[in-house]
Amino acid sequence: MFPSFLEVMKTLISGIISGQILTAIGASLSRLLIGFTIASVLGLFLGYLIWRYKLVEDTLGFLITALQSIPSIVWFPLAIIWFGMNNMAILFIVTIGATWTITVSATSGFKNVPRLYQNVAKTLGSSGTHFLRTVIFPSSVPQLISGLRIAWAFAWRALMAGELLGAGGGLGQLLEAGRSLGQMDLVISVMIIIGIIGTVMDNFVFLRLESKVQKKWGLS
Amino acid sequence: MYLTIEGIEKSFSHQEKGQIKVLDNINLEVEKGQFVSIVGPSGCGKSTLLYLIAGLEHADKGEIHIEGKKVTSAGPDRVVVFQDDGLFPWLTVMDNVTYGLLLKKIPKKEAELKAREMLKMMHLGNYIDSYPHQLSGGMKQRVAIARALVMEPEVLLMDEPFAALDEQTRMVLHKELIEIWKKTKVTIFFITHNIREAVLLSEKIIVFATRPGKIKATFTSTRMKDGFTPNDSTLFLEKQILEVLQEEIEKVLKEEMGDDYNFKTDNLHRDSSDNLGSHI
Ligand SMILES: Nc1ncnc2c1ncn2[C@@H]1O[C@H](COP(=O)(O)OP(=O)(O)OP(=O)(O)O)[C@@H](O)[C@H]1O
Ligand SMILES: [Mg+2]
């Protein structure tokens, strides 16, 4: 039932050369990037509202903690009803998978800005959006990065699940295509690619960024 | 009078003990350009008073006025050197020092020139592009002092600014501070645990009593200031201040140690006449 190592390698390389795998990677990553960007903007904004307004914290803040515990693929049926079985539906679950986590980490990042930094900025004359931009936000960066890392993992998983079930010509769909054609070598090739992308993002992008920031911010 | 503090009261709520009164009926008048030191046992509310003047805390009772204007919030006319450096770790030394200047709408070129000069004065000329995490504790504190001084505020509030520095640096900075003070006639509030430092630098020395914080005694010294040469009269003043402070320290020790305290204070008397209270 398993194809030989050589066969997998051949499919992998020819898939990359023919562009089949590369196109799939491109489709998946661009979808991920769009969803992740929306989630970041949304998460930061919601985090700001929760941090800023007690009323929002008591209502939305509580709701988001609950929403966070729902695996994002659970939203898929709803997404299909709303958007149809298409790109939008996948984008939706990718976004929703990351948004809550980013919101929660933004909220706690903003809340944990040391009093001392705030006092320094205020006595030097900072206020309003300048204060947000130069103190609250940069001071939260370490926590935001940790949040983004976890959010990215959620979004990545949601993306694969969505593509596998849905459409849109990404890696997940290629996986499904390989299965329906009985092409095990293709399935395993795609699995390898998925593993590599996940590892690279986590270890080389996020972990590295995280430790660099923690050092600079004097947290480690 | 330039700065008046009238009937200030401040309490903090404490989880177990309920409301704790930290400052009780503080009254103080300060002339423009005066150098005022505050000494007192740890936890007596010195920092709290400084925060009130800075506008970072609000009093439960009483008012603070500067040039007749009531202090209601923080502003760049009253700059603070905090007990901990409070440098922004995401900014370079240069950007930390120019932070307030740029907020004052000073052109970037001019701000950087000023910052560079001040950093050189603090012997940090080689660290202008470093990040705070690359500096030692004493260096960070000096950057924080530079950040406050470049602002050329009306009132400079300093919370144990030199506590983390070595003796040599401290002496150099005493001189620089006196120079700047003479040149700019800034009004300075200076908290310290070091009685000698207080006597050498300031014109007015306020000794705080503790629990609740109150002004226990006020001393004045009007001699020429150079910031580092003790003479007969400063030594005499140091002695007087130490005596007053001693009672307060004993009060704290008595509370904290209970019955053991008689035994311990015997040692304290001998120690502190050498160290002049730098241990409190
Ligand atoms: N934000 C706060 N909330 C609750 N209690 C506080 C707060 N700030 C200060 N206190 C309490 O007020 C008292 C005085 O604190 P403060 O920092 O003014 O003392 P201090 O005289 O500066 O002491 P030190 O010499 O050790 O710096 C302390 O008992 C402290 O626990
Ligand atoms: Mg203090």
UniProtKB/TrEMBL annotation, chain A:
Coiled-coil annotated spans: none
An annotated GO BP: transmembrane transport
Transmembrane residue ranges: 32-51, 60-83, 89-110, 186-207
Membrane topology: Multi-pass membrane protein
Primary residence: membrane
Top-rank taxon: Bacteria
Span of domain ABC transmembrane type-1: 25-205
Cellular component annotations (GO), alphabetically ordered: plasma membrane
Family annotation (Gene3D superfamilies): MetI-like
CDD domains noted in UniProt: TM_PBP2 (cd06261)
UniProt-annotated location(s): Cell membrane
Keywords: Cell membrane, Membrane, Transmembrane, Transmembrane helix, Transport
Protein family membership: Belongs to the binding-protein-dependent transport system permease family.
Record's protein name: NitT/TauT family transport system permease protein
TrEMBL record, chain B:
SUPFAM superfamilies the record matches: P-loop containing nucleoside triphosphate hydrolases
Reactions that this protein is recorded to catalyse: a quaternary ammonium(out) + ATP + H2O = a quaternary ammonium(in) + ADP + phosphate + H(+)
Protein origin, superkingdom: Bacteria
Ranges for domain ABC transporter: 3-235
Keywords (A to Z) from UniProt: ATP-binding, Nucleotide-binding, Translocase, Transport
Assigned EC number: 7.6.2.9
Keyword set includes Ribonucleoprotein: no
Gene Ontology molecular function, alphabetical: ABC-type quaternary ammonium compound transporting activity; ATP binding; ATP hydrolysis activity
Keyword flag Phosphoprotein: no
PROSITE patterns noted in UniProt: ABC_TRANSPORTER_1, ABC_TRANSPORTER_2
Enzyme class label: translocase
Assembly information from the UniProt record: The complex is composed of two ATP-binding proteins (OpuCA), two transmembrane proteins (OpuCB and OpuCD) and a solute-binding protein (OpuCC).
Name of the protein: Carnitine transport ATP-binding protein OpuCA
